[in-house]
Amino acid sequence: MSERIIKKYPNRRLYDTEQSKYITLTQLRQLIISGESIKVVDSTSEEDITRNILLQIILETESGGQPLFTANMLSQIIRFYGGTLQGIFGNYLEQSLGLFTAQQEQLKNNLGEDPFTAMTNLAQSNMKMWTDLQKDFLTAAGFPNTKKEDS
């Protein structure tokens, strides 16, 4: 899937190059929710500012309604910046969210099955995914793999 290019102009306006019209931050958020892959570039420098805009969307979303991140969670995330595990932690979060999204999709796809079978399959799949993710995280953090693999 190709990225949808959004240009940000000095007047703070966002321009959707695919639809050839200006859009709001709320409309951009809706594009992302609907599954669009976006890239936001500064109109004058062509610098990729996607992360900045995504953080702005998160900040606005967190400010209204019920927040996703607690103050304690944000404090813990801040503590990882500049530390030796910053890259590992970011990768761990990204993989965790990917797994969570895959699990949601799997659960949606299995709704027509016997509920007990669907939940059992999901639980078994989850255990394997989380075990693999934890093993990768610990290995990347420099901890030796002490558990012997089954042959």
Automatic annotation (TrEMBL):
Keywords tagged on the record: DNA-binding
A GO MF term: DNA binding
Membrane-crossing segments per the record: none
Residues annotated as domain PHA accumulation regulator DNA-binding N-terminal: 5-64
Residues in the signal sequence: none
InterPro entries for this protein: PHA_DNA-bd_N, PHA_reg_PhaR, PHB_accumulat
Pfam families: PHB_acc, PHB_acc_N
Domain PHB accumulation regulatory, chain residue ranges per copy: 69-107
Keyword Ribonucleoprotein: no
GO BP, one annotated term: regulation of DNA-templated transcription
Protein name: PHB/PHA accumulation regulator DNA-binding domain protein
